[in-house]
Design brief:
Structural class: alpha/beta
Strand order of the largest sheet: 3-4-2-5-6
EC number: 2.7.4.3
Protein name: adenylate kinase
Helix content: 40-55%
Number of strands: 7
Distance between the termini: 26 Å
Radius of gyration: 20 Å
Largest sheet: 5 strands, parallel
Number of helices: 9
Organism: Arctia plantaginis
InterPro entries: Adenylat/UMP-CMP_kin, Adenylat_kinase_CS, P-loop_NTPase
Subcellular location: Cytoplasm
Strand content: 5-15%
Amino acid sequence: MSSQTKPNAEGKKCPLPCVLRHLHCAKPPLRLASKPIIWVLGGPGSGKGTQCDKIVAKYGFIHLSTGDLLRDEVKSGSERGKSLNAIMKKGQLVSNDVVLDLLKEAIEARITKANGFLIDGYPREKSQGMQFERAIAPVTVILYFEASCDTLTKRILGRALTSGRSDDNEETIKLRMQTFLDNNQQVLDQYPSKLRRINAEQTVDAIFSEVKKILDPIMARPHPAIVIN
C-alpha cells in the first residue's frame, strides 16, 4: 500500500502525501458539547475585563485571554514556554498558530466545566478571526464595548495612578489606541450579522444590562457542537 493511500484513524484512505498525513489523519476530530463562543472586543480602557467578570459570575462562562494564556505557558517552564519567553523578550510577536494552539488546548481542557467561552481581546485583526473559525468553531456573537478615544484615554490615565503599569502613559496610550483602531474596524466589518455594539460610556451596571439582553436569548437556544481537529 502506498504512503498516499494509507488508511487514516477512521479507516478511510487518505489522499494526502505522507508529509501532510500526520496533520490530517493523526486522530479523528474530537466532537465536543455545544457551547456558545463569544468574542469580547473593545479598546484599551473600555471595561472588557470588568464585564467579563460579571458574565462569568452570571452565566458560568470560561474567560480566556490570549495574554494570560501566553504568560501561563511561560510560567509552566515547558519547552514551548521557553521559546515563547525568548520571542517576547525580543519584543517580537508570537505567531498566530501558537496562539490558536493555546486557545484550542484551553477550550478542550475546560469544555466540560464551561457553559460557554469568552475570548477576550481576540481577534485583533481580520485574518485571526478567519483562522479561529476554521480551526475551532464559528463565533456565536461579538460583544463590542464602544467608547470614544477621549473616554478611553482618560480611563487609562486614571488607572495609571494606581496600576504601576509601564504602558499606562499618554504616549504609549496613543500608540495602543491607533493600533487598535487600525485593525478593529476590519474585524467588525467581517461579521455584521454577529456584531453587537454596546455603549461603554455608561456605568458598569448599565453596560451589563445591555450585555444581559444579548446573552439571555443566546443561552436559551441550542448551539452547534464545537469540533476541534
